[in-house]
Known about the structure:
Rossmann fold
Amino acid sequence: MGIADRVILNPQLSEGELEACYAEALLFAFPSLMEGFGLPLLEAMARGCPVLASDIPPVAEVAGGCACLVDPLDYHAMAAGVCRVIDDAALRHDLSRRGRLRAASLSWRACAEQTLQLYRAVLGTPDSALPTTAI
Length: 135
């Protein structure tokens, strides 16, 4: 494709290198075709990196309106989305701000608390019947 001199494949980054990549990136592109939850998407959002992602249902749900979503099978739409995010500093700032908030709302603690609430509802037990010290 003629881009080998502009692409670096680095499968193993240290935490510091990863932080530097997110800090310097204009966007995180996540063109997933199949996804279970989207942890890479949340990782980028939590670090304030603007996200361009697939508009498939699991990704759209995780993004929660805080990412620029495009059809991952439409390379023209993908390219237009990348250009839009790169060219619009206000959009990048907004995606960064909203992405951080979205990622914070999907914490492991919140997941555990919601799971515990679900267990209580299904079992019909009062709040005091199930321990919460592990959360």
